[in-house]
Amino acid sequence: MGGGGQLADTPEPGSSRDAGVFTWEEVQKHSSRKDQWLVINRKVYNITQWTKRHPGGSSVISLYAGEDATEAFTAFHPDLNFVRKFLKPLLIGELAAAEPSQDPNKNIAIIQDFERLRVQAEKDGLFKTKPLFFCLHLGHILLLEILAWTLVWLWGTGWTVTLLCAALLATSQAQAGWLQHDFGHLSVFKKSRWNHLVHKFVIGHLKGASASWWNHLHYRHHSKPNVLDKDPDVNMSGLFVLGAVQPVEASSSEYKYFQCFINALGPPLLIPVVFNLQILTTMISRRDWVDLAWYVSFYLRFFYCYIPFYGFLGSVALITFVRFLESHWFVWVTQMNHLPMEIDHERRQEWLTTQLQATCNIEQSFFNDWFSGHLNFQIEHHLFPRMPRHSYHLVAPQVRELCKKHGVPYQIKSLWRAMADVVSSLKTSGDLWLDAYLHK
To answer: Contact at 8 Å (CB) between 379 and 361?
Structure first.
């Protein structure tokens, strides 16, 4: 790690940097791929060499090059004292006394109030896990799997039974997706190590995916939600354009006519085609053999259970149909909180403002909580990614009050309104692109 603590270039004699004291202007110059600094609690760190060894992935920490990363650092790491040990060799100085503690365009009052809210939530025990909640959730996933197999075992492979089996398996897969999300965010166990281990089991053996692939994509999304060129969830301009800015910028490309097909292609193909190709490519290119072993174990178990009934090709058709159903579920739940919201370039705003502009909530109900894995509280989840989901509804009133105090919009929608807004926002994006393309 020591290599990361070296200065990226030689300071000029007599400059403030001789004493390890820097201005924001100096810090912001170090935001290229080969030269990266960031600020945490007024301390300046050179992370250029460390990015490759960062457990969360090089692309995640690099998103904050040239910026203040204090709020993100606090949000993502459960044991701050442990992580600070890794920061020590990277320390190159601190901000000058006359410099503000955060990026110049950030609102210090919002930052301070949000930090007080986070600390109070910690004191109130809202970051403490209820083990029974997650045990019951895992139990109902396994029960759905057992029921699906039992149906086929007892009543054969007729169309009705097969459709019921596929529906149960798709439900199990969707719910396992929400459970792996909990472990991936380190919100179940106190020890990060246990979260990582169980995460690999749930996402690998229960879902047939890769923990490493998920971490590197999902943490980038949480770091800069709906920020063009930084959030992988909105960087689909190879085929589709989203929001109000991207369609205009992409209007010079004729193949963006594919935008009109996103409603038909996106939901059914994301998991069975796009995600599967990404997962396999990621595991093989990074030689992540542990994740690959868990991935293979899922399919070995699935084919062992269903080949005796459907044969090999029939089992392939069954899992493909299950992925098709699950993909619809996943796409609509995850996009209804983000896609209709603001999608724009980096503005370097406070954590609270950044997350609220990119997220909205869905009304609470038992069904909505279960159906979305409590991601109907997307605002609270984005503000407190390590908080167990059973605490979201408890912190939500305090978040609303804080937003009201500072004039930050806090949106809550019905489930059906949110889904309708996804369609209308896609239509708006398509219309903007077409208008820009025709009038370029």
So the answer is: yes
